[in-house]
Amino acid sequence: MKKEIMGNTVKIKQHYETAKKTGILNISNRQMMEIPANMKQLSEILRTLDLSQNSFKVLPDEIGIYSILKQLNLSHNKLQGLPETIGNLVKLEILNASFNQLKSLPESLSNLSHLKQVNLSENQLTEFPLMFCGLKHLDALDLSKNKLTCVPDGVVGLHVIELNLNQNQISAISDKMADCPRLKTLRLEENCLQLNAIPSRIFKESKISNITVEGNLFENKKIADIDGYEVYMERYTAVKKKMF
Questions:
Q1: CB burial of residue 6 (10 Å; 0-12, 13-18, 19+)
Q2: 18 - beta bridge partners?
Q3: How far apart are CA 155 and CA 173, in angstroms?
Q4: Out of 68, 70, 83, 168, which residue is the most buried by the measure of CB atoms under 10 Å away?
Q5: Closest by alpha carbon to 22, among 51, 53, 56, 50?
Q6: Per the record, GO CC terms (predicted)?
Q7: C-alpha 233: how far from chain center
Q8: Strand pairing report for 162-164 and 117-119
Q9: pLDDT tens sequence across 188-217
Q10: Which parts of the chain are beta strand (E)?
Q11: Which SS3 state, helix, strand or coil, does residue 37 take?
C-alpha cells in the first residue's frame, strides 16, 4: 500500500509539472478523498481540471480560487453537494458532475454566464435546477437519471438547445416549456407521464423539433393524438431535410 501511495504521489507531482506548462491537470482515478493542498499553486494557471473517479464526499470552498477554469470534471465521486464558491468560476464553460449523490445545487451556479454544457446525470436531484435559467450560452443540460417529479413554470428562462430529462419521475410539465427560446431537443423517456400531462403548446407553439417520450405511461404511438402533433412533425421533417 505504501508503494502505491508513493507511486501516486510521484505521478501527481509529474501532473503538476505538466499543468504548469499546459494549464491542464488530470488527477482522476487516484482514490483521493481530499484535494491536495499544493494544488493551490496552480490557481492562476488552470483552465482544465479533472477530478473524476475519486472518492470526494465534499468539494472544499477553495475550489472557487481557480478563477480562470473553463472545464471542471467532478464525475464519478461521492459528492452530496457543491459549495457556493463554485459560483466564483465565472469563466467556466463545461461542468460535469454526473455520477455523484447530489441532492441540491447552490444558487451561485447562476453566476456562471459562460457555461455551455452541464452534465448532472446520475444524481439524486428532486427539484428542477432553475439557477441555470437565464444563462444564455448554455447549450446542453443533462438531468437524466435523477429524481425530478415536475418541470415548473420557471423553465421558461432556460436557453438550452438540448434538455435531457430521461429516467426521472416526472409526471407534470409546465406549458411554459413551449416558450424556451432555443429549445430544439427535449428528451423525456422513461418518466411517469400520462398522455394528457404533455402540454399541446409544446407541439403547436415551440421550436422543439425532436421530442422523445418512449417508456412513459402511454403507448408511444398515442403521442400522435396530441393537438398540434402535425405542426410538430412539420418542424421535425424540415430539420431532417436540412441534415441530408
A1: exposed
A2: none
A3: 10
A4: 168
A5: 50
A6: cytoplasm
A7: 28
A8: unpaired
A9: 999 999 999 999 999 999 999 999 999 999
A10: 24-26, 48-50, 71-73, 94-96, 117-119, 140-142, 150-151, 162-164, 172-173, 185-187, 210-212
A11: helix
